[in-house]
Specification:
Layout (H helix, E strand, L loop, with lengths): L1 E4 L5 E2 H7 L6 H9 L3 E3 L2 E2 L6 E2 L4 E4 L2 E6 L1
Parallel strand pairs: 1-7
Antiparallel strand pairs: 2-5, 3-4, 3-6, 6-7
Helix pairs in contact: 1-2
Length: 69
């Protein structure tokens, strides 16, 4: 499980995928999200700009990212 510590109140979903090394670029993150391959808190998310806050969990291709303060 990858942990991302927030510097601000939130991080956007596309940025989180890049920060965790699960997407090489914003374009890669965009396509993965648009194709319904990314889950946030157990639900498929199609919003690249979805704001992730403390406690959110992202799942992509068998990898998990936890957002913490």
């Amino acid at each position: 499980m990858e942990i991302i510590k927030l510097r601000d109140d939130y991080i956007k979903l596309g940025q989180a995928l890049k920060a965790a090394g699960l997407a090489e670029s914003g374009v890669d993150a965009k396509y993965a999200i648009e194709e319904g391959l990314v889950q946030v808190n157990g639900e498929i998310s199609f919003q690249r700009g979805k704001k992730l806050v403390n406690g959110d969990v992202v799942t992509f291709e068998g990898n998990t990212i936890k957002i913490t303060r």
